[in-house]
Design a protein that fits this description.
Layout: E1 2-8, H1 12-23, E2 29-32, E3 37-39, H2 44-48, E4 58-60, E5 70-72, E6 76-80, E7 85-88, E8 93-101, E9 106-107, H3 115-120, E10 124-125, H4 133-142, E11 146-152, H5 162-177, E12 183-189, H6 198-211, E13 214-216, E14 220-225, E15 230-237, E16 240-247, E17 250-253, E18 257-258, H7 261-264, E19 292-294, H8 307-325, E20 338-345, E21 348-354, H9 374-390
Parallel strand pairs: 1-2, 1-8, 2-5, 8-19, 10-17, 11-12, 11-17, 12-13
Antiparallel strand pairs: 3-4, 6-7, 7-8, 9-18, 14-15, 15-16, 20-21
């Protein structure tokens, strides 16, 4: 059957767009996603800090699908944009007039040899899965001193501030327990600096100094030896590539990330190993297929892959989908807005908001969100989850 709109992925982006399309009067919308549970993933930072149990971050997917939207509970295995068809694992062939591609991304742990084995062992973790975020909390709780490594790739990942947040929250716990002085903490990233917006970078540099964290920029994690508990980093300098190995007692790593396999193998993907979906960065229309839109983590819009970005992308995509179905030009524009809520301590947060120009874009009136603030911590802990479940996913804001 051919439908007016097919949405691949029922995460933050898919549910938000589906709800908005229904509110706009579109009555033939299909969501394709196999998930039983839906997670509010930004809360995993606090799960990893031992502040929130993992169960508070999830709800049943069936309870979140907007009324009037058809849900095909199956995995996508192929995208055929030339025939306007989505193929599912169960053999379904779903036709569309307009496709909204927002399946999120996948963790490419295999791109770092030894990382998967390390995370299955007793000394390494991440906050990027529901299974491992609670393990992070346990490792931080048991830590009594030694070398702790926190690592982030230089390639795009969802919530690029998450590795820093994990380091800051761990250090604050160790400070409170009196063991931070016995810790040698290193934050290593493939990026060239602490953050791309200078106004916020200065604040974060102060946080790094306060905790005594050593930083290694332009240092990509390329291999882990879980038996020796050693992590190898590669840097590129005037003399070419150089590799350095660091021992660890605790390793926290954000794995490299890429588009799901069925996207990477389709004509929708860009060239390269990550396979992001190329879009016009303002209209979010596919660069080669005008009836295809992409938003969220899977698209190549040059901004941070965050839920805050999706919140601003969803109304743009909705308006442009409606226009395309009506034979009009998609004129709505996304300005690159994104936000990174940096939890810098167990009771403080800096809210970094910015756009494509990497200029600050504050949205909270009368409050200096460039400072570490307790009220911003309350926003992270209580306000943003409530907004997500009750407003954003319902297409209300």
């Amino acid at each position: 059957m051919r439908h007016r709109v097919v949405i691949v992925g029922a995460g933050s982006a898919g549910l938000s767009v589906a709800a908005r399309l229904r509110r706009a009067g579109e009555d033939d919308v299909v969501l394709v996603d196999p998930a039983t549970w839906h997670y509010y993933q930004p809360l995993w930072t606090l799960v990893g800090a031992g502040v929130v149990p993992i169960a508070q971050s999830r709800r049943r997917q069936a309870a979140l699908v907007p009324q009037g939207v058809a849900w095909v509970r199956d995995a996508v295995v192929d995208l055929d944009p030339d025939r306007h068809v989505v193929v599912t694992a169960g053999g379904g062939r779903i036709g569309y007039e307009v496709l909204v591609c927002c399946p999120g991304l996948e963790l490419a742990v295999d791109l770092v040899p030894g990382l998967s084995e390390a995370m299955a062992g007793p000394a390494a973790s991440t906050n990027y899965t529901a299974e491992l975020a609670p393990k992070t909390a346990e490792l931080v709780r048991r830590f009594r001193g030694g070398r702790a490594l926190f690592c982030a790739p230089g390639s795009p990942i969802k919530c690029p501030g998450a590795p820093q947040k994990a380091a800051y929250l761990a250090c604050d716990q160790w400070r409170r327990r009196g063991v931070l002085g016995d810790a040698e903490v290193t934050y290593a990233t493939g990026a060239g600096g602490i953050f791309g917006v200078p106004e916020f970078a200065r604040v974060l540099e102060g946080v790094v100094e306060r905790y005594g964290i050593a930083t290694r920029f332009s240092s990509e994690l390329v291999e882990v030896d879980p038996e020796r508990r050693a992590a190898t980093f590669e840097t590129v300098g005037p003399e070419g590539k150089q590799r350095t190995s660091l021992d660890y007692d605790l390793l926290w790593a954000a794995p490299p990330q890429r588009a799901p396999g069925f996207v990477r193998d389709s004509p929708l993907a860009s060239a390269g190993e990550y396979g992001w979906v190329p879009v016009d960065r303002h209209s979010l229309v596919h660069q080669r297929y005008p009836e295809v839109f992409a938003l969220g983590d899977v698209c190549d819009a040059p901004t941070s892959k965050t839920g805050a970005a999706i919140r601003r992308q969803a109304p743009v995509v909705t308006e442009n989908v409606v226009a395309t179905l009506s034979g009009r030009e998609p004129l709505a524009r996304y300005d690159g807005y994104a936000a990174c809520p940096f939890t810098t301590a167990l009771n403080k947060m800096v809210l970094a908001e910015f756009d494509y120009s990497l200029s600050p874009r504050p949205s909270v009136p009368f409050i200096d969100t460039k400072r570490e603030r307790y009220d911003m911590w309350l926003l992270k802990r209580y306000g943003l989850p409530a907004f997500y479940w009750n407003v954003m996913l319902k297409g209300l804001g």
